[in-house]
Specification:
This is Fimbrial protein. This protein has a single domain, classed as Immunoglobulin-like. It has 173 residues and is α+β, with helices and mostly antiparallel strands. A five-stranded antiparallel β-sheet has the order 1-2-8-5-6, with no helix packed on it. It starts with a helix and ends with a strand. It has two helices and ten strands; from the N terminus they run αββββββββαββ.
Length: 173
């Protein structure tokens, strides 16, 4: 076949190929989709966000050497209600310019009210949010931190103290 005959044959066959392709259904391909909506935990202040600092004070009792703070915490969990809290490292408050001055190891507690506060440690403590009204359970809790000031004369131990409070919140599945 000559070149011009091949071109005419190709031109005549192309529309037929296109038509046949359009007329040939590919068929359905069954696809199963499984969506897993994993639990998600959010820990924050009741109005959102988190605490940049906790200011401990000694004005709430007879023991003026005991400094403490108590703040509200909201725990929201999607698709679950049980969780645990662990104190990752002991909280040590150290003087900002004299590291030899430290408060006693802080007692860190967590609970749903002042009467149900539980001391946190490296061993996880279990908690449960109320039964959810939908897919998210929300619980309101208190975080309490207390420690005794370093021994010494008031003028010698006065100053700014810092420490790092690291808590681990985990969903119990």
């Amino acid at each position: 076949m000559k070149l011009w005959q091949q071109m005419i044959a190709a031109a005549l066959l192309l529309p037929g190929i296109a038509t046949n392709a359009a007329d040939s259904p590919l068929g359905g391909v069954p696809i199963a989709i499984n969506l897993t909506n994993l639990p998600q935990i959010t820990v924050e202040k009741p109005e959102g966000g988190w605490y940049d600092t906790l200011a401990l004070d000694n004005s709430s009792g007879r023991d003026v050497t005991l400094y403490q703070a108590q703040v509200p915490v909201k725990v929201s969990i999607r698709n679950e209600r049980d969780f645990s809290v662990t104190l990752v490292n002991p909280l040590i408050l150290t003087h900002s310019t004299n590291p030899s001055l430290t408060f006693s190891t802080a007692l860190v507690k967590f609970g749903s009210s002042t009467t149900t506060l539980q001391a946190l440690s490296a061993t996880p403590i279990d908690f449960s949010n109320p039964i959810p009204q939908g897919d998210t359970s929300v619980g309101n809790y208190l975080l309490s931190v207390s420690a005794h000031q370093p021994p010494g004369v008031r003028g010698d131990i006065t100053g700014d103290y810092m420490g790092e409070l690291m808590l681990l919140f985990e969903i119990n599945i």
